[in-house]
Design goal:
The protein is mainly alpha-helical and 317 residues long. The chain contains 16 helices and no strands. Among the domains are: 118 residues, Tetratricopeptide repeat domain (Serine Threonine Protein Phosphatase 5, Tetratricopeptide repeat), CATH 1.25.40.10; 60 residues, Serine Threonine Protein Phosphatase 5, Tetratricopeptide repeat (Alpha Horseshoe), CATH 1.25.40.
Length: 317
């Protein structure tokens, strides 16, 4: 539902063991392995980008200008150029790491954050970034240790509280998770991300009334918050409030997408007849391009066949 990278085998598992080591350079002393786009393909610099840059400062300025234009590929090219002038350029490395983190190129993000910490173990931005990237990599205990260390260094960062809350929820320590979210909200009481995650924590523990109240509070102050709408739609579907759920989905999704998402939830809840009707509605609303509904319908038919087979085998025993 809605919550390719080059694998680099050489990672340093502890920050202290990395200090002073140039383990991250390739044989040519270049950093082209960071030039990876959203699809995992190699970015080929243009002739203008290949032109000589006078120094790391100019390269960083060009990278920042590209970021302001939303051109992350060009930003990566210039951040990598900055590293050619200074392999310990923390600003360039952090820019590279942040871009790959957002793109989901997790191994590259983790590598870049570790490169920063190899030379400066106290860099809080890198520690925070590494902790959050490790969550995406499902390395929860490593992430927890790094984020707790970061929290000790600076207890005013809401992203750290949020990250620790997410880890606790993933490990089913729901009360602990809500403690982290609550402390983050003491710093920023209007944080839509923290409030939405707090609501989801209640949802995970089947405290649906608490979750619904929080989602609606988020949407009162942040009416366009996508994740709050999606979480509320999920909750309403699980409660059997299908009309309200569809309405919530349609606040942020198209009609065929909304039918498909609701159908998927019904399929997970083994309400196959309702799921089939919703998938058919999704296809009817957009028959020319909505492949997801077709695939979900095929999966549903397989589940229905398995269910009939299971019932038959039980009745014969």
């Amino acid at each position: 539902m809605l919550f390719k990278f080059t694998f680099l085998s050489l990672f340093c598992l502890t920050l202290s063991g990395c200090a002073g080591m140039k383990w991250y350079q390739n044989e040519q002393g270049e950093y082209d392995f960071f030039l990876e786009d959203k699809t995992g393909e190699k970015i080929e610099p243009t002739e203008e980008e290949k032109a000589k840059v006078k120094g790391g400062k100019e390269a960083r300025l060009k990278a920042k200008a590209a970021l302001q234009q939303g051109d992350t590929d060009t930003a990566l090219v210039y951040f990598v150029k900055a590293l050619e002038f200074d392999e310990e350029d923390e600003e360039a490395l952090n820019g590279i790491a942040d871009i790959h983190f957002v793109r989901g190129n997790n191994e590259l993000a983790i590598l870049a954050y570790r490169m920063i910490l190899a030379d400066n173990p106290e860099n809080l931005d890198a520690k925070q970034g590494l902790g959050l990237a490790l969550i995406k990599a499902n390395k929860y205990e490593d992430a927890r240790l790094i984020l707790l260390s970061s929290l000790k260094d600076n207890p005013q960062r809401t992203k750290i509280y949020n990250g620790l809350g997410v880890i606790s929820d993933l490990q089913r320590y729901y009360e602990e998770a809500r403690w982290f979210y609550a402390n983050g909200l003491m710093i920023d009481e209007n944080s839509a991300i923290l409030m939405t995650n707090l609501g989801y924590s209640y949802y995970l523990e089947n405290k649906w009334e608490n979750a619904e109240k929080i989602y609606k509070r988020v949407l009162t102050s942040h009416p366009k918050h996508i994740q709050a709408h999606l979480n509320l739609a999920l909750l309403q579907a699980r409660k059997g409030e299908l009309y309200d759920s569809l309405s919530s989905f349609e606040q942020v999704l198209s009609k065929p997408q909304s039918y498909n998402e609701l159908g998927y939830i019904m399929m997970l809840d083994k309400k196959y007849t309702m799921a089939e009707q919703l998938f058919q509605k999704a296809i009817s609303a957009s028959p020319s391009y909505f492949d997801k509904a077709h695939k979900n319908l095929e999966q549903l038919k397989e589940l229905q066949i398995k269910r009939k087979s299971k019932v038959t085998s039980i009745s014969l025993q």
